[in-house]
# Entry
Amino acid sequence: MKAMRNHVIAQLALFLAAPAAAGETMAQRVAAHEAPFASSRSTGLSPVSTGEMLQCAALWNRWKYTLSSAATPEFETALRPELQSASARSREFELRRQARRGRLNDDDDSYFNEVRAEGEAFADKIHAAYVKNEPKSTEAFMEWLGTC
# Structure
């Protein structure tokens, strides 16, 4: 497990460092993250169901992990405040809290555990595509965070 985590961190570091080698400036890199986030945010969509809240919490968790494990401090500081570590941590916590509150109202542990697992798997898929720098993966990850 530790070897896998180290591999993911190495891939993230390469991905976040790659733009400099490709001639992309820090401003362009930041804009590639912020533009889809802002566009998605402007739709006014937000998680409503327990499953959506847990999926969003997992996505914010993966973003927080990305920032803490591979992003340079300069990159994070250049991002809008909503995409920085402190906001990611707060957003994840708040979404998990809201989902747990909904769970208490539903009192259905099996459903809660099922949708939590689905949300975690979805976040892993989005994050893996981002780490591999697949086409449109940055846009997709940031769009999801914008709705979350």
Q: What stands out?
A: The chain is about 80% helix and 0% strand. The longest helix spans residues 109-131. The two ends are 29 Å apart (CA to CA).
